[in-house]
Amino acid sequence: MVKINKVLNKALRLSLIFVPLIIITIGYVVLFDQTDANAAIRYAHQFPGADAGEKIQAALADLPTTGGVVDARGLEGNQVISIQLNLNKANTKLLLGEATYSLSAGIRISANNVTIEGLGPGATILKVNAQSITAIDTPSPSSLGGIIITDLEIDGNRANIAFPLDDLTGHGIRFDGVTHSHVMRTFIHDTVFMGINFYYSDDNIIGWNRLENIGKTGIPPGTSAFYGIYIEYSNSRNKIVFNRLAGVREEAIRIRTGPNTQNEENLILGNHIGSAVDGVRLVEDLGSNGILRGTIIAQNNILNITEVGIRVSNTVASNQIVDTSIMDNIIINCGVHGIDISATAGAVKRTKVIGNTIRDCTGVYSRAISLGVGAENSLVSGNISYNNTNHIINDGASSLIYGNRQDDNSDLRLWGDVRQTQGTALKQDNTSGTPLRLFTVDGSDRMRLNPDGNMLYFGNLTGGVFLPLATGEDLGSGTNRWNASLESVTVYNSLSPNISGNSLGSSTNQWRVYTQVVATGSLPPAGPSMDGVLIIEDAGGEDRNLIIYGGGQRFRIDGKQSF
Q1: Which whole-number Å values give the CA distances from 228 to 168, 325, 342, in the listed order?
Q2: Is the backbone peptide bond immediately before 141 cis, with ω within 30 degrees of 0?
Q3: Is the whole model's pTM more than 0.90, yes or no?
Q4: Helix, strand, coil abundance in the chain, percent, nearest 5
Q5: What's the count of helices (H) and strands (E) in the chain, helices before strands?
Q6: What is the mean pLDDT of the chain?
Q7: Are strands 534-538 and 544-550 parallel, antiparallel or unpaired?
Q8: Max Cα–Cα distance, the chain, nearest Å
Q9: CA 201 – CA 138 distance, rounded (Å)
C-alpha cells in the first residue's frame, strides 16, 4: 500500500488531475474511499511555507468550512513542523507520508470527526523535539467526538527533552472531553510522561497499539504521571484492547476517578503487559465521593512486574470501587502479589476474581491473590496458583473462596484455598444440601484456618448448619472431617442437634466427634498445653479407655467392654 500511495502521489503531482473514483497507473488499480472522493482535497506540498508545518497549516486553512482532506504524503524524508498544527474544521482528514516530522510544537485537534492517518509505524514518525509539548492533544477542556489517530509512530525523544513544568504535557497523546474516538495501530515510545491519557472521555477505543519506554527517569515515581495508558476522572465505557506495553516506569494501565465523579464499565482486554511497576491498577486516592464501578479486566498477559500484576486499591474513606471483574488473566513473575485487592480506607466491594493463572510471584511476602483489609464480599474461584510464595490469603471480610488450585507454592502452611485472619472464610447459601468440597493438590480435602474469629457458614441448607471454628486449623487428612479444638466449638443442626464437636460425618447428615487413638505407652504427658484434649487409649485386645486432660493432669475412664 505504501508503494501504491507513493506512485499515486507522484502521478497526481505531475498531472494535477484528480479522477474521482478510479485511477489506473503503472498496472495498479486504486479504489478511493467514497468519502475522500467527494471531499475537498488539498496537497500540502503545493502550498507555500518555510517547513512542512507551515505548508500543512496553509492547506488546512484553505479547506472549506465543511472540511476535507489534506494530503501531506508528498512531504517525505526529514521534515520540520515548527508551529502548532491546528485541525479546527470538522470532517477533516490529515494524511501523513513516509517522513520523520520533527515537532517543535504539537498537533492540536479542536473539531469533531478529525482523522490523522499515517503509513504505519516506521514510516510516519512524529518526533518530539521541544520541551512542554504533547505530540497530539485536544484543548482542555473540550467536547469533541469522532477523532481517529491511526498508523503512526510517536517518538517522545525523552533522552533529549528536559522535564516539562507539569505533567499536562510531555505525553504521546492526551485527549480531554472526547467521545466515540479511536487511537489505533500507533507505536508510542520514549515519552517524558504518559503514553496515552484520556481525561473526562467516554465510549472510546484504545486498541492494537504498542507502547514502550514510557516515563523519563530523574524524578521520583509518584511525583508525576509515568503511566502507559491512563484513563482519569470521569471516563466510562472505554475499551483498552489488544495493546502491547513494555518498559513503563509506573503502571502500564491505570484507571482512576476524581472527586464526585463516576468512572464506569471500562474494559481492559487482551493486552500484553511487561516490565512495569504494576501491570493494571484501579485506584481511588483522590477527593471524595468518587465511584469506580464495573471495570472488566480480562484475558491479559502480564509478566515481569516489579510489584503487582493487577492492583485494586482505595485509600479515601468516602470513595468506592465496586463490581470489578478480574477474569482469565495470565500473570507471571511479580515482585509482590499477582492480584491485590485492598482498601486502607473506603471500600472495595463485590470483586470477582475468576479463572486467572498466577505463577512465579516469589517475593518474601508475595501472594498469588491477596484480599486485603477492606476487601468485602469478594468471589474468588477457579484460579490456578503455581510456584508462588503464598496462595490465596484473605484479610478482608465476607468473601466466598472455593475451587482454586495451588501447585508447588512455597508456603506449606497453606493447606487449601485460603488462610484467613478475620471474618467469614467461606459462605454458601441456597444450595439445597449440595456439599461444598475443598481440594488441594494432594487430595487431602483440608483447609487451614487461623483461629481469629473464623467460621464456615452454610445458609439455607437442609438442616441449617452453623459452625464457628474458634481455634481450629485443619480440615482433615483424608476422611473429610473437621479437626478443630473442642474449645468454644458449638454445632447447631436443626435435624439432629448434637453434642459439641469438631467433625462433619461423611454421609449421615449429623455431626460426629472424631478424636485421636493412641496406643498404651504412647500417651502424651500431662501439662497445661494438653488441657482440653480428649484421647482414646488402645490398651490392646478389646480394652479401650478414654483419656481426659485438664488442669495440668490426665484422667482415665475405663471403656469396660465393646458392644
Answers
A1: 15, 21, 23
A2: yes
A3: no
A4: 5, 40, 50
A5: 3, 58
A6: 79
A7: antiparallel
A8: 116
A9: 12
